[in-house]
Amino acid sequence: MASDIPSTWQKMLEEYQRYVALNRGLSSHTVRAYASDIRECLHVLHLRGVQNMSDIDLRSLRSWLAHEARTLEKSSLARKTVAVRSFFAYLSDRGAVSVNPAAALMTPKQSIHLPTVLTEEQAAAMMGTADEEAGEGGESASEAETDNQSEKDPLTPRQRAERQRDAAIAELLYATGMRVAELTGIDDDDIDAAARTVRVHGKGGKDRVVPFGAPAATALQTWRTQGRPQLRNGKSGAAVFLGARGGRINQRQVREIIHREAADAGVPDIGPHALRHSAATHLLDGGADLREVQELLGHSSLATTQRYTHVSIEQLRKRYRQAFPRA
Q1: Does the pLDDT at position 126 exceed 60?
Q2: Structure confidence by residue, pLDDT tens digits, 294-324
Q3: Considering only Cβ atoms within 10 Å of each terminal Cβ, which end of the chain, N or C, has fewer?
């Protein structure tokens, strides 16, 4: 709420929000998260008796961080630190404060967290199950309906379409390693079927072109030509993937789809981001260059991509311990 800090501080925060939205290419979600973190910090400091922005110093900011550390994970603390540091750097650059009190505010060191990944065999099983449930794209929806009349539990054209969509989503997420938000944002003209590439709209307004393989191409073609027409309506627009009501599918629906596909395949329960982790790890295991994987995933920092080398090494250790007689 705007009333939990002085009006002058609120005005500074609003000006900062406009600045980062226009000049740093941050998404609206990131801008809102930054503003929320900064407001929380200013609110705590104001409750502790700070009346002027110029009275905020490094000690008071460290005290605020210590207060937050009692209930937050290090990853959340790091995000809040970055937001506050960015805000005071903005104020300092514009002369709103004479000294930047957050300049020496250190980001909490985070422990290396190895992401959950499927083995190559588990990923293959999951993709295979999804393709089988979709009918492998080998027949049209009307043909599928006719062929299924004699079955105990026939699929309607709409049910067939949804399974074709789910298979295409699973295949494309794994094939490209894209984020779930990137997948939901794909439009029809982002896909080059002949070249088997998709233009991905990534974080910070950065686009990249990502290739995908034959299985994903087949599943995507089946969905676009057979399944999508069954769900399409006036809300669909150019969106490639549609939800149950015909509009652009949302991230929650995609997560539900991936959890369901994992359960159907009998593999560990995962979400879309675990497919991204799996794709990166399997690429590195297969000999891909680290910078190639960085480009594929759209990481701004190579250090982020290097997390997956830890996963590959850990898996190698496990296989070594299992296979080598003198491990």
Answers
A1: yes
A2: 777 877 666 666 666 655 555 545 554 665 5
A3: N
Task: Give the residue from 177, 112, 117, 125 showing the smallest Cα distance to 318.
Answer: 117
The residue type of 170 is: A
Right CATH for 120-323 from 1.10.443.10, 3.30.2130.10, 1.10.510.10, 3.40.50.300 = 1.10.443.10
Mean pLDDT for the chain overall = 83
Q: Catalytic residue positions? A: 179, 203, 273, 276, 299, 308
CB 239 within 8 A of CB 248: yes
Backbone angles phi, psi at 234, to 5 degrees: -65, -15
Q: Which residues, at least 6 apart from 243, have a Cβ–Cβ distance to it below 8 Å? A: 231, 249, 250, 253
* pLDDT of amino acid 141: 39
Any bridge partners for residue 208, and if so which?
Answer: 200
Q: Tokens representing 59?
A: 């000690």
User: What is the SS3 assignment for 8?
Assistant: helix
**Distance (Å, whole) CA 218 – CA 207:** 24
Residue 142 has pLDDT above 50, yes or no: no
Has residue 200 got a pLDDT over 50? yes
Residue 184 CA to chain centroid, in angstroms?
A: 10
Pick the CATH number of 2-93 from 1.10.10, 1.10.150, 2.40.160, 1.10.3470: 1.10.150
Residue 210 phi/psi, 5-degree rounding, is: -120, 135
Verdict on whether the full-model pTM lies above 0.90: no
Handedness of CA 53, 58, 59, 60 (dihedral sign): positive
Does residue 127 surpass a pLDDT of 60? Answer: yes
